[in-house]
Amino acid sequence: MTEPKIQDVARLAGVSPSSISNFLNNRMGQMRPDTQAKIQQAIEQLGYRPNNAARQLKTGVASMVGLLVPSLANQFFGALACAVETAAARHGCHVMTFSTFRDPDRERAVMADLLAYGVKGIVTGSALSDTEHLVAVTSRCPVVAFDIKRNDESHARIATISMDNAAATTLAVQHLVTLGHRAIALVTPPPYTLNRQERIRGFLQAVGAAGIAGELVIADATDGPSDPHGDTRLFELGRSAAARIVTAASRPTAAIAINDMMAIGIGVGLKQLGRRIPADISLIGIDDIFFCAAHDPPLTTLRQPIQAMADAAVQRILAPDEKPDGALFAPELIVRSSTATPPR
Amino acid sequence: MTEPKIQDVARLAGVSPSSISNFLNNRMGQMRPDTQAKIQQAIEQLGYRPNNAARQLKTGVASMVGLLVPSLANQFFGALACAVETAAARHGCHVMTFSTFRDPDRERAVMADLLAYGVKGIVTGSALSDTEHLVAVTSRCPVVAFDIKRNDESHARIATISMDNAAATTLAVQHLVTLGHRAIALVTPPPYTLNRQERIRGFLQAVGAAGIAGELVIADATDGPSDPHGDTRLFELGRSAAARIVTAASRPTAAIAINDMMAIGIGVGLKQLGRRIPADISLIGIDDIFFCAAHDPPLTTLRQPIQAMADAAVQRILAPDEKPDGALFAPELIVRSSTATPPR
DNA sequence: CTGTTAGCGCCTTCAT
DNA sequence: ATGAAGGCGCTAACAG
């Protein structure tokens, strides 16, 4: 239970602690090979590992970046966390992840915890419930946001990573139009976030450009069970929205969901209503979470390039001098089996 | 970018640093209320947060536990990470999570990283690819495993948290037998882990006790794409195993999958073969991941009490003196719509 | 090329 | 009830 320290290694190797330190930090510029060998052997013999706390205290920086997500139990954010971990590893960094459960107080608290750990920067995939507070954090370390509510001047110091949300819905509409659809619905929760607003804008624009009917279905259910993990709510919202798609005035033959979770809910709702997908109605999601492939039928979707986005987010923090890797990331249309030509 | 330190607070509050320290550690025994108030105000005014690295260096322990999972992109382990985070929070602890991607070298490396951070203990949900190494780690800090390959004497120092795996399959069989099934298949990858062996044992035993036919389908595909995230492989294995269920000599009218991911794959495969669930064949999974509810039809499953298990794992590390909270956790049968009476 | 030294920010006796 | 002092393990000058 008592770890060997740098002095123990130095003693065993017959050199001074600073040589060990140099060795550990790859400052081998002027070190004789035999010294290196001795050090290496002493380290292994003792099973020595440098104490991160001491190192951090001395250097002032941890080799950690912080990550905030609504919940790791949410498939999308689990995948995001995985991508961020991979991205950080490329820079020799570790990731400390916190779930906020969409609780503003908890969000504030874990931000403070992250700061106390001396993280090099914070990536947040959690909605910004308290903009003021987040902005304050930027004075302590770089902050990169994946989801942002507004995009005004107060966020100048918050870097934003985003897919081209308008392009996603535009591509979806174009795919559907090519298939022959003339009336399409977009199903979304209330557009509180910029992401959603952009998706709506892209939808409206594409539908207008194609000269077809666009039906906006805002699914809002305050009666649902509270949902700290963020999965259930969207799913349920989608399921209950299915009826509104079916009864919409413009008689849509296809539905675009604000994301895959909602699409899956819509799929279940539609089937309960006796509609077949895609024979009666086509369905498209956004994100490309794993279960799109397992859905019945496999779900056509617009894939978010999560790894590329995570790479960019981490790069903004750990290598801010490199060229900012693109502003908006392009969604990729993944055609599976939930879209087809409209009935009749 | 430069954090206030304890001295700054002391100066502003007009007291000594140690009073601040006492305040921070709730050693308020002899402190005058007005002093406390001054300190409190100074802290808020400066936005002061104690430096974790310094605290840890001094006290020797971090308030962190480590968590190893194959990948957070895997739904089950995302949920597990979430549960562990919640459990640790109850003890005022944070969690540092690493994905191993089932790479033994990486597993070793991140274990070492965790040790270097001075974690209080390590929870591993990753298969033990290198038992020797893990055992070595137990001399540095407590280790709790969720999934273990063997259970021999060498693991005496590794605490194990497990659902009663045999009970899960037994319950599944009993549920099916009650429904009227007389021939049941268990579909599993090769039983490399104790978990799987136990599930098989429970299955065989229950099937024998009921006097019905039990078909063991070992799905083994080395030709599949490598799958660092662990989702795809099981899904694909399930899908390709569907044909073997259908053609099995005992003509099973129901299938139990080793877990939900595989069950979902089996479901897709069965449908591709033209079989309806549950009309033609019943299907049961194990775990109760979120998508069971979204599956078509909603999947009957044996729920793992993840939160209770996470609580127990964390307790073993952070409060080892309390009574060990049960050895085996009971699975809970969640009946949805994928099971019904057999055809004819 | 390697050893010596002086803290990093905090906590913990021990005095006061 | 509060202040002073030493050191946790490591790194980064600077000596030698």
TrEMBL record, chains A, B:
Pfam families: LacI, Peripla_BP_3
The keyword Kinase belongs to this UniProt entry's keyword annotation: no
Domain HTH lacI-type positions: 4-59
Record keywords, A-Z: DNA-binding, Transcription, Transcription regulation
Lipid metabolism recorded as keyword: no
TM region(s), chain numbering: none
Listed GO MF terms: DNA-binding transcription factor activity; transcription cis-regulatory region binding
Gene3D superfamilies (UniProt xref): 3.40.50.2300, lambda repressor-like DNA-binding domains
InterPro entries: HTH_LacI (IPR000843), LacI/GalR-like_sensor (IPR046335), Lambda_DNA-bd_dom_sf (IPR010982), Peripla_BP_I (IPR028082)
Name of the protein this chain belongs to: LacI family transcriptional regulator
Species assigned in the record: Pseudoduganella plicata
